[in-house]
């Protein structure tokens, strides 16, 4: 199943039918596109979205990074609360957001690694940057 992780219907259906699924995505809030496949993303190095920090942070910027990371988790769990309840009912087991996402077979990431902070990615993550770029006039 080719699916977008913003809408959790694809992963729920794939888990229910025991089918492999592929995420085709631009980005995912809360850094879950690196956490779910277990990519290293240390908070002391990788700045969170909307903090406007660079990869060279002071101590207070790192504390801010950790706090934003905790708030992101609360935000994401609230945003996907209905999907988590639905998946728990359908799959008849308690499921977390990371449980739904970490069983993806392949992650097709629609952004270019050049614009991201340097970090290792898992072998099932493929960068396909440029797919959304329109030709300039």
TrEMBL record:
InterPro entries: UDP-glycosyltransferase (IPR050271), UDP_glucos_trans (IPR002213)
Localization terms from the record: Membrane
Keywords linked to the UniProt accession: Glycosyltransferase, Membrane, Transferase, Transmembrane, Transmembrane helix
Presence of keyword Transferase: yes
Source species, domain of life: Eukaryota
Topology class, membrane: Single-pass membrane protein
Single GO molecular function: UDP-glycosyltransferase activity
Pfam families, per the entry: UDPGT (PF00201)
GO CC terms, sorted: membrane
Family per record: Belongs to the UDP-glycosyltransferase family.
Protein's recorded name: UDP-glucuronosyltransferase 1-3
